[in-house]
DNA sequence: ACCTGAACACCGTTCAAGT
DNA sequence: ACCTGAACACCGTTCAAGT
């Protein structure tokens, strides 16, 4: 009988638990989700789960860290483009659709609320945000050199403004049920254009 | 000995409890604040509080409804102005300072997260948001008639975009400790100008 | 090693008893 | 009428006991 831990099983269980947690969090939010809810969804007993996550908090942190992956394709597009403003306006429909998914917006806002109290969640989200902001800033800086982007503001200021606009979009659907992303696509893109072009 | 309730006392107690709750919420957030925390801060016993608020939820809802008052001065400015774009850019420093107060941003995000699960909180915030959006939209519509505001987008679409920008500003400080509102004042105002002017 | 379920501590809410 | 504090139910976490 093996007495050494099985890393394969551990990894599998963590994924299984995180997937279960994501379902529960989407339905009920972080704080109304019960450990037993997650256990049931994951098919484990109450105590069993604690072998893989020390606390509920750890599950939330791990969940927040997973968001990071979703940025990769956007970052790649920004790195490879030779017209950053066009790249951003091209991304807009993608952003709008993702953000208008109510589940996504809810979890994003909930994670942000959590971040303001929980430094580990904050770190995970901040790193995420920082990565994307940097990618935008670098692309815009290249655009400034090429004369495609206005030079009256620093590239990182412009990038931060773009991010603020995006995060405003993310939470829009929560309070306004009549909000439709399509209606704002053209508007947002023209705004980006006017903000960024010389 | 009086057997009829004393409405004066009731009103006083509610204010006293809400004030205590606000302090606790700012420190710990809605969910990490304990009923006993609020009771202690308000100088009441555990059971005593329940004479004035039936549940913790009711306290949160009442708290969310209070935010509404803060909009009044902004709305008045928008109603009285004869240059809505100038009015909005004039408001920006005020908005930026209020939003860059971390406590304010935290509570705003927390309330929004709460709204996505709690329909009464949602209603309170939505009404608040609606009022302000309407005020901006009306002002912009007047500006469109007067030729000060572009006519290529509907006034309410423009107003919603302005609101999204503002709400992006509100949450900015949570993840980015280096964020300073002053640095964005000029940028935001130029953005508003470019967005709204013909 | 991995898992279970009973047990414990904590927090929202209630209620009998006080003034 | 208004208030208190003990009591109850629920949930995060632990741990002795099973395989």
Rough outline of chain A: elongated
Backbone structural class of chain A? mainly alpha
Q: Largest sheet of chain A, described in full?
A: none
Please state the CA-atom Rg of chain A, rounded to the nearest Å: 20 Å
Mean pLDDT of chain A: 90
End-to-end Cα distance of chain A: 70 Å
- The share of residues in extended strands of chain A comes to under 5%
Largest protein interface?
A-B, 43 and 43 residues
Total beta strands of chain A: 0
For this structure, the quaternary state is: homodimer
Question: What low-confidence regions of chain A span 5 or more consecutive residues with pLDDT below 50?
Answer: none
Output the number of helix runs of chain A: 9
CATH class of the largest domain in chain A: Mainly Alpha
Summarize the structure.
The first copy, chain A, is an all-alpha fold. Chain A contains nine helices and no strands.
Please outline the helices and strands.
The structure is a homodimer of 198-residue chains.
Chain A: H1 7-28, H2 35-42, H3 56-66, H4 72-80, H5 84-100, H6 102-115, H7 119-145, H8 155-175, H9 181-196
Helix pairs in contact in A: 1-2, 1-3, 3-7, 4-7, 5-8, 5-9, 6-7, 6-8, 7-8
Chain A binds a DNA duplex (19 and 19 nucleotides) through loops.
């Amino acid at each position: 009988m093996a007495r050494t831990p099985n890393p394969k099983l551990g990894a599998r269980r963590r994924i299984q638990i995180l997937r279960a947690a994501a379902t529960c969090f989407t339905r009920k939010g972080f704080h109304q989700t019960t450990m037993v809810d997650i256990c049931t969804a994951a098919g484990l007993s109450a105590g069993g789960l604690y072998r893989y996550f020390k606390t509920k908090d750890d599950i939330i942190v791990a969940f927040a860290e997973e968001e990071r992956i979703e940025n990769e394709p956007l970052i790649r597009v920004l790195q490879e483009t030779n017209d950053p403003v066009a790249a951003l306006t091209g991304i807009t429909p993608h952003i709008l659709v993702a953000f208008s998914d109510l589940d996504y917006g809810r979890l994003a806002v909930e994670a942000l609320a959590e971040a303001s109290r929980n430094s580990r969640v904050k770190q995970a989200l901040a790193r995420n945000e920082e990565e994307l902001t940097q990618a935008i800033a670098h692309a815009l800086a290249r655009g400034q050199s090429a004369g495609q982007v206005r030079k009256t503001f620093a590239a990182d200021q412009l990038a931060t403004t773009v991010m603020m606009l995006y995060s405003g979009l993310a939470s829009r659907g929560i309070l306004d049920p009549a909000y439709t992303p399509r209606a704002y696509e053209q508007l947002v893109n023209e705004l980006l254009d006017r903000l960024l072009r010389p």
